[in-house]
Please model this.
Amino acid sequence: MKSEVLPWWLGLTALWVLTLPTPSLPEIVAAAVAAVPCAFAARAARRAVGGGWRPRARWFRWLLAVPGAAVRESFQVLVEVVRHPRAGRFDTVGLPREPDAVHEARAACAALVVGSTPGTMVVATPENPSAGRELVVHRLLDGGSRVLDEVRR
Model:
């Protein structure tokens, strides 16, 4: 396997195994086998869109903010939507200046992490150079977001 396919294969196999209530050897083997074509498809998809992402290991710290934010925002969003059914607004989140490959990776990883919380979701990553490095998000809650603060760093 190529070096790019291996991380995809490992991640996809782990994802499958994490969904199993009681993993057994046949299920783990099935996960590993099924993940092979998916890993190659992921590499082909990245090449098709011309992606050259350069993610940073330090971005894993963003995940530390997700559990607390998800629990807190779940309650707050429920209350907000019951009180104001049309709640929510669009906002922009500025990102640091980085090389294109790093910015694209940050935007993709940020969309995944930010979307893991109920209060905010990424709706666009403008490619307009005059717009700067930013994400367009839809926020249901006013105030700060620890997850967005982490993504901005």
